Amino acid sequence: MPIDPELAIGADLGEQTFAWTSSDVLLYHLALGAGANPTDPAELRYAYERDLRVLPTFATVAQNLHTVDAPSVKMPGIDIDLAQVVHGTQAISVHRPIPVEGKAVARTRIVDVQDKGKAAVILNETTVRDADGSPLWTAQSSIFARGEGGFGGGRGSSDKVELPDREPDVTIDTPTLPQQALLYRLCGDRNPLHADPEFARAAGFDVPILHGLCTYGIVAKAVTDALLDGDVTRVKAFSARFAGVVLPGETLRTQVWRDGARLLIRTSSVERGAPALSDAVLTPA
Description:
With 285 residues, this protein is α+β, with helices and mostly antiparallel strands. It has helices spanning 5-8, 22-31, 41-47, 180-184, 197-202, 212-227; strands at residues 12-20, 73-75, 78-80, 85-94, 102-115, 119-130, 135-146, 170-175, 235-242, 251-259, 262-269, 275-284.
């Protein structure tokens, strides 16, 4: 079915009520690699309930943590083959620290559908409020659908982040596990692209790849630990573009530049020298 931008843009995808517990938060953190040093007090703030803090990127999984079915890309005016889809961008902005457990209501709408010629980009925005109606976080995301362009829509604008013309202030190397994608899929993203070798080959990849949102969370944690003293409450917002795939077991090299109050970030695979995240900005509270 071709994309119908008139039907899609502005479409309200409805409300979803969901809840999470400390066990969900612990699982998410462990799926990002937290607790690699299990006696480090800083790591135990992510991996032990006694003094548990919630990394703000938990917002990207909280709504679908208990989903066990593979996702579909069917919305008003949009019906796309899952094998043609990759995550394009992700941004979260937290309005206050995320509690260790809670209940919330999410409402999502389609913000835009962009025609890139050979591909389509679909942008969604989700606002989340707690049970009392107070705002918790806002998330924006886009998906890149190969072969779905040419429907006559606008191309959209570029949000490229210019990095300073100097060496980074900090460089962080973070190893990933060979089984990282198998762990992370337990946080609600059962796309077989991250587990099934045959599906991955059909989608054009040699092996299953790591979830973009797993890379996103790993980098947020690494930067928070290295530059914000591991204080997750100091993270106000984090946005990034998924610039390339990461293979489970690779090491992520994250370069950070201080730019006023912002932290500008670029992440790549050490082994392949290939980009992973670009145009990334972490804004401290």
